[in-house]
Amino acid sequence: MKQVALLSDFTNSPFKTIKGKDRPILLIKENERIHAVDNRCPHMGFPLNKGTINNGILTCHWHHARFDARSGCAFDLFADDIPSYDVKVEGEVVLLSEVPRNKPTASYYKDRLHQGLEQNISIIIYKSIVGLLQLKVSHLEIIREIAEFGSLNHENWSNGMTLLAITINLWPELQENTRVMALCKAARQVAINCHRQPSRRKFHLLEGSKFDSQQLTVWFRHWVRTRHRDGVERTLLTQLAHGDNAALSDMLFGALHDRVYSNVGHNVDSTNKAIELCFSFEEEAASQILPLVTVAITQARGEEENSAWSHPIDLIPIIKVSEKTLKTIWKKDTQFSEASFSKFRDLLLGEDPQAIVDEMINLCRGKADPKCIAKEIAYVAALRLAQFPESNDIADWFAPVHTFNFANAVYQTIVRHNSLQSVRGLLPAALSVFQDRYLNIPSVALPNPSEKLIELFRNNSNWYHNLMDTLNEKQSWRIFPERVIAAYRAGRSLTELIDGLAAAVLREDFDFHKLQSVEAGAVQVKLWRGRMEVEHILAGVARHIAAHAPTPRGESKMINIARRLQRGQKLYEEDSPLDSP
Predict the structure, then answer these.
(1) DSSP designation for 575
(2) CB-CB contact of 127 with 565 (8 Å)
(3) How confident is the model over 262-287, as pLDDT tens digits?
(4) Are residues 120 and 92 in the same domain?
(5) Is the dihedral of CA 559, 565, 570, 575 positive or negative?
(6) 8 A C-beta contact, residue 500 and residue 180
(7) For the chain, what is the radius of gyration of the CA atoms?
């Protein structure tokens, strides 16, 4: 312990602030006792020496958070507990420990993370994640904790769980600051999804007999068709126990594609994300996480139950007939051949849905790689975004971005398991691109930055800030994509640009679709590396982001406050001068 004060220092005030080892510390005298806590309110960092002490309760006057002065425990849970320090008085001398009473460990921060998730308190969630990362805890270990909480505390797959999977997928492309933002936002969304929801009921797989995968698949698709959730979940768990990932994929996506473009494509994407999340962990995670998708699968409506895909052109018979044709020409062990997709691309942008699916069937009959077909569809879907005009209503963005994300999900399912059931997704993906054709009237010109603008991003250490500043004002629909392309032509790497797009999304108060489109873009641009299609995909993602920015950015501000609190930094310059011990 070090000498930090004398009792006489408290003659005129119950407070004395000193400079601690890594943060400002507040000494409090009350009823002849001395207490010591971090001087920064754990809610927003306001200096607590500007508050009051009464009856052992320390009150921060900014948001009226109240704390036990001795232990630092919060009476108002939104504020989190304050780190407290041991104090000893010897005569007139006040001695202070240099480290908090509860030295943070990984176990401590995991406990705090669970408390934050349970109580849906953002600052506790954020500080716990920052603390765990500072201790070099793997992001996968942190995400597993959050995913496990989510799997136990709500019944349905949610956008928070999707964000966890996206965070894992994007992690290698992101800088440290962007990684923290992504992980914090995903965790907070899981907490929001689970807030005041009942704990998930426990299901059991079918026992007492052995079942082959084909029989389970027949049952599963029957239960999905008849909307019997219990049967769906129990059959799914039994298939999981078999450990046959190929059979699992066929079972899930076969049932999903039985309903055309169900829930505007969300169900295929969510199931794909659930599988990706499960495969990021050890095998037993799947039985906890994957059953969350069963509610959406059984409740969803397909486009055959709606009118948009039936009038003025009925697309459903086109899909169903084409599926039968696919089944007759599909061979499991196909040796794929080179194919030309120029005609297919023109048809995707055209007005004839039958011609689109006919050409797709011709490509499959010619043994074209289904991954290449999916890549082509995703590219044209991104092109729709890149040429989306300002004359459209802002709500109209949802249709083309759903198409792009769905097409990317179909591509990823085919990459993971190339089978008839996954390839069926190409049909609704292509016809969803067709459905979006009127959203490109008139088509916006693709970005073509000037040499002067390109030079601005070449050998410029401030290029990132020049890019991000564009989103600080409305009407950046044209400017932001143009600057993204200028940065790309100036030699900025795809990794740098993906990180920049992700950071642009994460600082805003956006829904999950925006980060979902960044992830889809990150997957697709790598498939076209070195070609003009890269610019069009980047422009599509950038235009979608710019159309919705800026927002109040409240969550990102809270995350930054949490990071600064964890680093021991002061947040407010008006804080009183500190004495050194």
Answers:
(1) S
(2) yes
(3) 999 999 999 999 999 998 987 678 99
(4) no
(5) positive
(6) no
(7) 28
